Amino acid sequence: MNLRFALPALIAMCGPSQAADWSAVEALFQDRCTACHSGEFAPLGLRLDSHEGVMAGSDNGPVLDTGDVAGSALVMRVEGRAEPQMPLDGPPFLAADEIALLRDWIAAGAPGPAEPAAPRAPEPPPDPMADGRITYDEVAGIFARACILCHSDNSKMGAPPEGLRLNSLKAILAGGDRVAVIPGNAQASELIRRVEGLSEPRMPFNGPPWLTDGQVALLRAWIDGGAMDADGVPAPVPVGGRVRFRGTMTGPAEIDGAPFRLTPDTRIDDRPAIGTRAELRARVGQDGQIIADRLRAR
Ligand code: HEC
Ligand code: HEC
Predict the structure, then answer these.
(1) Ligand 1 pocket list (CB less than 6 A)
(2) Between 215 and which of 145, 211, 283, 296 could a Cys-Cys bridge form, CB atoms 3.0 to 4.6 Å apart?
């Protein structure tokens, strides 16, 4: 190898011109940010999947200031000087050299791609219902964008409320203080009751905006289809898991459209009439049915 030619190339690779390269920044955003910061439901409207998106900033305004690198919202978030720290699904958060890359790039004026990207026709988003079944990977983005802000160990509330983490399939199925998802029984799943506002407070807690009808339909289809993992394997029913509903009686043994089973052991205090408010404490049966332990007027 001829050092006289190799050395300048090496210096160029380590120098600021390389660090300020959009393609390196784009690769980092793709790797750690665009799972959430892209598309129609990007948090705070911030899209990090194109140079234009980054420059457009969020609903709050620009996220970078080339004259004040340290004060840029984006830098403050990845350094944890503004909470919650990004990426929201961390730890791990960004490594020191990744943060340095972002800082150098902003200091260099946040340049865009060398060649302007060829205009591409927007691709229609894939239809998750196309194959007639919904798997976890097709709903994970809803939890990432709308729920894990609070329901994870990086929770802005300090700890995940009601012990409920929504940042992995395992955590969602495990539930928190109570069962949140009953595979095969969306109507009786507290997670659905919360996003539809049947249980108060409605989720996401920082809404509106609430989930769209399309997002709720997707979550319903996923749960009714057995809460399948990415490979299409349905989740086990959490037999014996505890549930609690505060809602409206819609039948003699039905709360907000979810039937439950009364047994001789069910304790009933002032039996709530149809159309009135009730509290039901129950557990999950073999088949995902709801077995009432205690029913009372509220
Ligand atoms: C798992 C989803 C997720 C990932 C991954 C993620 N974010 Fe975020 N991001 C959010 C959410 C949700 C918010 C809104 C938080 C809030 O309401 O305070 C947010 C807010 C932000 C904000 C604040 C915008 C403003 O107006 O103040 C910045 C900047 C940001 N993210 C940058 C990033 C960067 C850079 C990455 C990758 C290194 C990243 N995010 C990865 C979900 C995510
Ligand atoms: C801004 C924070 C925040 C966000 C975002 C959020 N939650 Fe919550 N969540 C809470 C709080 C606080 C509670 C406890 C409320 C109560 O019952 O007093 C809660 C409770 C719940 C419960 C009830 C748990 C139980 O055992 O009773 C479910 C289910 C739930 N959230 C689902 C979701 C879903 C699904 C999303 C996203 C679509 C979401 N949450 C987004 C803060 C949040």
Answers:
(1) 32-33, 35-37, 43-44, 46, 48, 58, 60, 63, 73-74, 77-78, 84, 86-89, 94, 144-145, 148-149
(2) 211
